[in-house]
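Q: Can someone sanity-check these two? First one:
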Amino acid sequence: MASRHHHSRLKGVSHSRPILYGTHASLLKPNDKRADPSHTHKWTVFVRPVHPNEDLSLYIKRVQFKLHESFDPPLRTCDAPPYEVHETGWGEFDIPIKITIHESLEPRGHVQLTHTLQLYPKENADGAGGSSGAAAAAAAGKPVVSERYEEIVFNEPTEETYRRLAAHPVPVMTKRALGVTHVFTPATEAEELGKLKEACEKVEAQLERDRHKLAEKEAELARLKASLGED
């Protein structure tokens, strides 16, 4: 029989896991296969780890992507990595994404996200280059990548959940890994790189706080067991 302590919640403790989600798209070439003659782009919607060596299946049970109703079927389910769907099309639309957490870690746990499929480069945020810059990027055949950072947070996890997650810490991001980017201007590249660095620092700081809190809880639990005469 499992110890009741494994199912007790760690009050005041949270554990975060970073992910990336989004889309990347590129123009179809004349010889590329397409489901419909009107389709102009091939694209992928995805949920990925921030660090390429992290295994998201440690805590993710499945990922579901809800495509536009014109796709058959519109609901796509991924039960194992890679969590991504590949399609072709001509229009942009919002894609709801549902991430289901393993029930053994968090019963009925899930995260709901939404991302807009982006087929064309956006104009520079500062207006420099304007639409000519976006047109040049499209003409050059560069893939259009639109991705976002998110954290899956386990608030007051059970002892067992915390131990399982802590046993597989998030890999430390190297400068080389952080240097990978898919944006079209130096300004937006620097902004995204700064966000990723800040996010990794937040995760590392949170993990350190969690380790201290867990040590305090374990000490408190040991004292309680001693007072109750448990082994």
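And here is the second, same format, sequence then tokens:
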Amino acid sequence: MPGPEIVAKPASLLLAVGKVPLSDVITACRALEDNAVRRAVSEEGGIGIPALRVVLERDLPDAFRSRSLTRGAWGFHRALVRASGVTTLAMVAEALHSILESHTEAVSDSRMYEDPDGYEAGYQRLRRSYGRMLDAVASGDPGDAAGQWNRHWTALERILLAENSEVTVAEVVRSAGETRR
């Protein structure tokens, strides 16, 4: 049975045709993940802490070693949304994550890999941020967890929009297509 990733491509194309700015996708993803974080912490949420720990302790280091840190980082975002226990939220998030992952690869991966020390430093910052998030989720305080995740997103948004704050989904989709050729 197909997973939530099946909605990613059609959603990307619809947003691209509509000339939607990437900042709009970021705003939607932040709102969706804020809700997911709060649900993951609450009794209504899923069993997310063990899954998040696996991403932090196994998947992210594996991604770092294989030079696919962007994929590992967005894997944490995906696991966080799945931890909410809401399938529909995960499906919608997958469409947004797919767009944002493509853009993250375009704006950060090549620079990180050219500078091994910078790549290592970025990885360590990411691990600390995700570790703080995991601690906040485990604390059981939805407000604290959402606040921590908002701080992470503020830093991420600066990275995503640093080169061009007016970038559109169409440009991201076009760039991702050129990269895959």
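A (reply): Looked at the second one. The chain has one domain: 4-176. The chain has a mean pLDDT of 86.
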